[in-house]
Write a structure and sequence with these properties.
The complex is a heterodimer of chains A (110) and B (113). Chain A is mainly beta. In chain A, 0% of the residues lie in helices and 58% in strands. Chain A has strands at 4-7, 10-14, 19-25, 31-37, 43-50, 55-58, 61-66, 71-76, 85-92, 98-100, 104-109. In chain B, strands 2, 4, 5, 6, 9, 10 and 11 form a seven-stranded mixed β-sheet that branches. A four-stranded antiparallel β-sheet of chain B has the order 1-3-8-7, with no helix packed on it. The chains are: A mainly beta (110), B mainly beta (113).
Chain lengths: 110, 113
């Protein structure tokens, strides 16, 4: 069964706006990762945050992790048309299995 | 570096046929895995390997076999294809053995009639 669940399922924003999506999970983790998938392509790793970290930045991406609420958020600032993609959270535990959610589809309108 | 290479990109099978999806990586990663992606269900782990000669089951292993004779290659075998195995299959590898950053191939789209 899926460990992570993203919310919302779909998001449509204007170019230049910020996009925020959330991920909730059920059991304890040692890291949480976010991936991007462009239509018809493989997934690309964006960022990894460890369970002892609360916030991480990478370029226009900001990820937060709240282990007490078992949730994470991904913020994309100043969105561009090229950010149109599906975004997946994935949780890692000490069992060699990275578990993915169903994803959030983001559409950035010009 | 080519990264993770999957072949074929597209395949149509009839029910009961067998086939092998190939996956090769040139990054000397110990960890390799196979996922399937179905609409609305995200990615589900089929099998994984933490090194040559070592494989284990993921979330949805039934109907699939794997082997890992070399570090580079991790083929996925469907012994008797069923329509329920219609999906997009992704191979991924990692330099870390335990839930590190995954590098994905471009996917293999399989249709079973």
């Amino acid at each position: 069964s899926q460990q992570g669940e993203e919310d919302p399922q779909a998001l449509s924003i204007q170019e230049g706006e910020n996009a925020t999506m959330n991920c909730s999970y059920k059991t304890s983790i040692n890291n949480l990762q976010w991936y991007r998938q462009n239509s018809g392509r493989g997934l690309v790793h964006l960022i990894l945050i460890r369970s002892n970290e609360r916030e991480k930045h990478s370029g226009r991406l900001r990820v937060t992790l709240d282990t007490s609420k078992k949730s994470s958020s991904l913020l994309i600032t100043a969105s561009r048309a090229a950010d149109t993609a599906s975004y997946f959270c994935a949780t890692g535990s000490n069992d060699y299995k990275l578990s993915f959610g169903a994803g959030t589809t983001v559409t950035v309108r010009a | 570096n080519a990264g993770v290479t999957q072949t074929p990109k597209f395949q149509v099978l009839k029910t009961g046929q067998s086939m092998t999806l190939q996956c090769a990586q040139d990054m000397n990663h110990e960890y390799m895995s196979w996922y399937r992606q179905d609409p609305g269900m995200g990615l589900r782990l089929i099998h994984y390997s933490v090194g040559a000669g070592i494989t284990d089951q993921g979330e949805v292993p039934n109907g699939y076999n794997v082997s890992r004779s070399t570090t580079e290659d991790f083929p996925l075998r469907l012994l008797s294809a069923a329509p329920s195995q219609t999906s997009v299959y992704f191979c991924a590898s990692s330099w870390q053995q335990n839930t590190g950053e995954l590098f994905f191939g471009e996917g293999s789209r399989l249709t079973v009639l």
